[in-house]
Amino acid sequence: MKNPYYPCLASPITIKGVTFKNRIFGAPMSNPELDPDCHMRKEEIAFHENRARGGMASVCIGLGIVDAVGRTHTKEVKLYDVMSLPSLKEAANAMHRHNCNAVMELAHGGKYAGARSHGDQEKPLVLGPNDEINPEGLPVTSMTDEDIYRVADCFASAAALAQKAGFDMVLVHGGHGWLLGQFMSPSMNHRTDKWGQSLENRMRFPLLVIEKIREACGPNFPIEYRMSGAELVEGGYTIEEGIAMAKILDGKVDIIHVSAGVHEDPDAFTITHPSMFVEHGCNVHLAAEIKKHVKTPVATLGGLNDPDMMEEILASGQADIVELARQSICDPFFPEKAFSGHKADITRCCRCFTCFYNYLTNRTFCCAFNPVVGNELANQSGFPDTTPKKVLVIGGGPGGMEAAITAAQRGHTVTLYEKNNRLGGQLLSEEHIPFKQDMFAFVQVLEGRLKKAGVKVVLNTEITPEQAAQEQADVVMVAIGAQQIVPPIPGIDNPKVVDLKALHQPSPAVGQRVVILGGGLVGCESAIYLDSLGKEVTIVEMKENWAADSYFMHRNAMNMYIRQSHIKILVGTTAKEVTDQGLICHTPQGEQLLEADTILLAAGMRPDRQLTDAFYNTAPRVFQIGDCIKPGRVLEAVNLGYYRALDI
């Protein structure tokens, strides 16, 4: 019987005797932290289990390293260490508890290995296709035949270990510029022996690895092979050669998983891991082209977050399987909601790189929209016991909305007061910005959850501390947000000076020539939006760097756009005066008049501490949430709203 909502997406697929309950697979996601021996802790297992719980057909644990020489950083699962077996067995069991197949990625960093993993050694051994110096400045040693056969055996041993642990499939990483991809690539493989030059020779090592895994695991253990359909770098192979590679793999592996790019290239990174500035499904066309030429099932991915788009991909024959990574963090219950007709309750990944940034810098799992991420172990037992109470939430931004929803779900009687005529707070600025639609959609999802949870919402009401006290609530949660900073410069009250509310409409209330006062994340994103509308945009920033408050992956994505735009950025520049002609600034080259029809304020936010603190003692317990404490990201607001509500 077919699912009435998504008949293709919800249909099972059987591969080498292993049945996957639907066509949504969890793409590889590695672990930011492990125990000192690089074995999975209960925290990592709980994270991956939470992805499995929501209905995906499989979950893949990323970066299982097959050889000590192949490590690219210090927190990759050691598949060459038999002592990894107990934690891997526990991870596989966790997936199986939810009728979800467990998949392990097999990887080797090749020429990109060594620098991060063996930095304590004077001369770490780094192996690759050629003798060269890698981007970290370390010498790379060209692999001998003995090295190649030894590493192929390492892949096989790692696959056998995963199979012994109860994993249902392995994914061999041959894309993104990892070792096997380095041998496949004409831009990275400069060998003149049987392992290089022709496509047949460059594919010899990957085929050897596949053959060794078959020998070690038997003919009925599924092998998924991840490749880049195109490298997307200068000198790299295009889709035409990607098709030829896939034809060589056809029939030798059980799934051809088509990704894109070379991970170490900053520009390609934002396509491999699509930023909000590229279309959803940006890499699907690569899989679609390859599928025309092979009989093996083809998997695709690339910033997918919409079940309607996924259904169309499968229904139109562009791929057989869709794979999700970030979307499975943002809303692990994505499949269950889609298949049960609750698409409107899906929290869609907005591709903000919050997860990537925290993974790389803080070694934590994190999501801007999902407060459970990174705390799955603590949340597994559900909400703590509580006695029903009367709760007031003051402020209808994302933090206040999340607090109200969570409190109501726990059985409290909740009223939310919002001074404006709409909920959403600062996220309302995103409503008409094309690349921010997923972020604005989060407001709509929260509105639906407020209604479902039974929260009473009172709009157009700026409740005072005195009025809040008169309500005699048990708990008051203050989420009144922050105020926009208005620089104290002459002429700032000129009519041509507007704040971000000028963007809260289908056609922004700005002129043709726009000077943005403030080159942080908000100012730069606003500049990209206005440039896309054909406006002449100049950014003025006091610091020496623009978008210094953004995640570096997101900044790379913005930089790709800005390089090809007409946006002008003046850093180290101070605004001195607003005149009828524009903005007078002090630049490193001296005083300059920036002619402008509109000056858009994006100089930051500050909390209204006097008003916020006035709510103290309006109830036995008073909590503060989000920007009224310290202006920050939606991540902090949502997390505080959720966990403050758990404290009630």
> What's the overall geometry?
globular
Task: Summarize model confidence as the mean pLDDT.
Answer: 94
Number of helices: 21
Alpha carbon gyration radius: 27 Å
Strands, total number: 29
What structural category arises from helix and sheet content? alpha/beta
Q: Unreliable stretches, pLDDT < 50, 5 or more residues?
A: none
The percent range for helix content is: 25-40%
Task: Give the strand line-up of the largest sheet.
Answer: 3-4-6-10-11-12-13-14
What portion of the residues fall into strands of 2 or more residues?
15-25%
The biggest beta sheet is recorded as: 8 strands, parallel, barrel
Distance between the termini: 45 Å
Describe what this molecule looks like in 3D.
- The chain is of the alpha/beta class and 648 residues long.
- Helices cover 31% and strands 19% of the residues.
- The protein has 21 helices and 29 strands.
- It has an eight-stranded parallel beta barrel, surrounded by six helices. Strands 17-16-15-18-29 form a five-stranded parallel sheet, covered by helices on one side. Strands 20-27-21-22-23 form a five-stranded parallel sheet, with helices on one face.
- Helix 7 links the parallel strand 11 and strand 12.
- Helix 15 runs parallel beside helix 21 and helix 18 packs parallel to helix 19.
- It is globular.
